[in-house]
Every structure is written in structure tokens, then in C-alpha cells.
């Protein structure tokens, strides 16, 4: 037998974390990493946050799981918290981001079928998007590397260029049900939607009775300095997927919708065995209790501006490596002149600094939202040392 016990779908590196410590983690060979990846925008409160640990411990002792066929005081409480914090009127809880996007796709389709427009099932999505790894969510992305070997894709998606409002408008046809878009593309390389684009999509949806579906799985939950990224644009979606940070490390997500958009989501149309179980609800509540208020969001914006200012200054010293800092709040990207994967590995292997590589030659910087000035200092020291010692040819 030569296959590994863990199905070998990830190119796992030899960093083997065994213990978390606030904004750092420690590996089985005793190395201590500064974690500016956060499990890819998940550990909003860092590692080992006492409020999150306490909430999970207490709920595990009290009631871990029961069926969704019973009443859920825990689910009602968290759903109300999300409804109060967002545009939404109603929430379906999931166990992952892809499932939240799946639920959003189903909600958009069934809206039209519930009002008798059976021919409207197609979502217009955007080049270089990432929506997850299920059949529907890979079909919703134009990325060939995720399709290869898994054909046929699901019908009902049409791709146009991100930030190209005219192309989005031109793609609307008799089958169009709506748009599915990340306000800030994460995997695609921290590409920020323009105001004109997001406001234009909203207007097109209003004019044609289409669903504006946002994938805020990566950019949501305080990451950008607003509770959700759509707030930066002065618009509201009809349907939104959220996950990653919402459980702070506990696997959960949610699909949030307006009453109008959810009109087809009636008894028996959707479900999940684990989705919204009491343990997940306790984790989600612990996270929202910390991040869902103006003081916390203002602090994310302050730290985001500090980090961004330092990065802008830093890249000026290395014009041969970096061209741009982009993103919002603590969802930042360094656009590089070379493939970012090599530099990410260099920081990881030689400077005990964790970041995330992304598309479009971009290095993602996604720290826990609870970072302090000392973490930014440590990050800039490691990043500067890494840039000074980096030889792209040697890495490639
Ligand atoms: C990570 C991600 C997903 C998928 O989430 P999973 O929890 O891995 O299923 C979907 N959309 C976006 C924008 C993401 O970043």
C-alpha cells in the first residue's frame, strides 16, 4: 500500500502544529510560528481564546447534539443575533462554507421557481472566484484546475470578468436567476470589488428581479473591519453565505436571506443533520459576542490601517518583489512580481511566519482579528528578514 492514510489531496508541508497560543502555534518539533494565516481566515480570536474554549466546554457538558426535528433555543438565539447584525431575516446553519454557498444557490433557484419563473435557474458568477469544493460550488467557478477530472459540471452557471459591470449586464438572459459574487475575492488573490461594480449589480438585480447572492465565507464576520463586507458598498444582498471565521475554529457556516428571497425555502426543501447543533451554536455565539459590536470593528479597522501602512512602506524597499498592497481591514494581500507560493514557503520554512499563498501572484495576510501592536512588529520583522534573504530563482 503506498497511498497515505490521509487521502493525499493536500500537498501537506512538514509544519505539524500541535498547540495554539493566541496568535502563535507550536509544532511537534518545538518551532513557534506567528500565525498570520489563521487557518485561512478562521481563527478570528486567535488560538486558545478563553471565551470560545469556555463556551464549547460548557455546551459539550450540557447538550452536544440533537435532531433538527426538535425546537432549538440555541439556534434561535444565534439566528436572531445574525439577523440583528445583518440585512437578513432568516438563517440556515451549515457545517462549512461550501454548504452555505450550496444553500444560497438553492435559495436563489427556488425563489424563482416558487414565483413561477421555472426558466430562471442560472447564476452569473465571476472569473477566478472560489466558492468551495462540492459539485455545485466548483461548477460555480470558472477555474479549470478544480474541474479537471470531475466532469460533467452542473449546468446553470455562467462566468464573466470580475469587476466588469458591462459584461455582467450583457450576460443577463431569460435563464438568469441572479449573481453570485465575493465582494473581495480571497483565493483569487485579494481582489476587491469596486463600488461601481457592487452597486451596479444591486441595481441590475432590482431592475430584473434577480437575486444578489454574496459569498462572504472568507471576507465576512468582521474580517474587513465591518461585520460583513457588503457594508463597505452601501448595498445589501438578498442572500449571503458566511462561514470560516463564524465559528472561530469550530466548523460551521450559515446561509442568510431576506424574507422575500427565502420564500421558496419551506418545510422539507432543505436540511442538514449536524447543521446548527447546540455545540456549533455555542461556538458561534461566543465568537459573535466578541466581534459583533462597534468597538471591536473599530479596533479591526485601526489594526488594519496600521498593518497596511507598514506594508505600504515596506514594499517601497523591495520594488523588484512587490507591486501593491490590497484588501480591506485585516484581509490584506501583497501583489508580487513573482509566484507567491515560493515566498510563502520561504517565510514558512526559514522565518517561522505563516501566511497564505493565493492566485494572481498574491500573498494573503490574514491575522487573527485580536492582534496587538507587538504582533504587527513581529510580523514586519519576519517579513523584512524574509524579503532580504529571498532569492526567487533558488526557490523556483
Ligand atoms: C473557503 C471558501 C469557501 C468554502 O468553504 P469550506 O468551508 O472550505 O467549504 C467558499 N467560498 C469562499 C469565498 C471561501 O473562501
Automatic annotation (TrEMBL):
Compartment list: Cytoplasm
UniProt catalytic activity: N(2)-acetyl-L-ornithine + 2-oxoglutarate = N-acetyl-L-glutamate 5-semialdehyde + L-glutamate
Any Gene Ontology biological process: L-arginine biosynthetic process
The UniProt record lists the keyword Transmembrane helix: no
InterPro entries: AcOrn/SuccOrn_fam, Aminotrans_3, Aminotrans_3_PPA_site, Class-III_PLP-dep_AT, PyrdxlP-dep_Trfase, PyrdxlP-dep_Trfase_major, PyrdxlP-dep_Trfase_small
Free-text cofactor note: Binds 1 pyridoxal phosphate per subunit.
Residues reported in the UniProt entry to bind pyridoxal 5'-phosphate: 97-98, 130, 215-218, 273
Any one annotated GO CC term: cytoplasm
Alphabetically ordered keywords of this record: Amino-acid biosynthesis, Aminotransferase, Arginine biosynthesis, Cytoplasm, Pyridoxal phosphate, Transferase
Listed EC numbers: 2.6.1.11
Cofactor entry: pyridoxal 5'-phosphate
Residues bound to N(2)-acetyl-L-ornithine: 133, 272
SUPFAM superfamilies given in the database record: PLP-dependent transferases (SSF53383)
Main subcellular location of this protein, as a coarse class: cytoplasm
Catalytic EC class: transferase
Pathway the protein acts in: Amino-acid biosynthesis; L-arginine biosynthesis; N(2)-acetyl-L-ornithine from L-glutamate: step 4/4
UniProt xrefs under Pfam families: Aminotran_3
PTM annotation (N6-(pyridoxal phosphate)lysine): residues: 244
Molecular function GO terms recorded: identical protein binding; N2-acetyl-L-ornithine:2-oxoglutarate 5-aminotransferase activity; pyridoxal phosphate binding
Subunit structure: Homodimer.
Note from the entry: May also have succinyldiaminopimelate aminotransferase activity, thus carrying out the corresponding step in lysine biosynthesis.
NCBIfam families the UniProt entry points to: argD, PRK01278.1
Entry similarity comment: Belongs to the class-III pyridoxal-phosphate-dependent aminotransferase family. ArgD subfamily.
Protein name, per record: Acetylornithine aminotransferase
Lineage: Bacteria, Pseudomonadati, Pseudomonadota, Alphaproteobacteria, Sphingomonadales
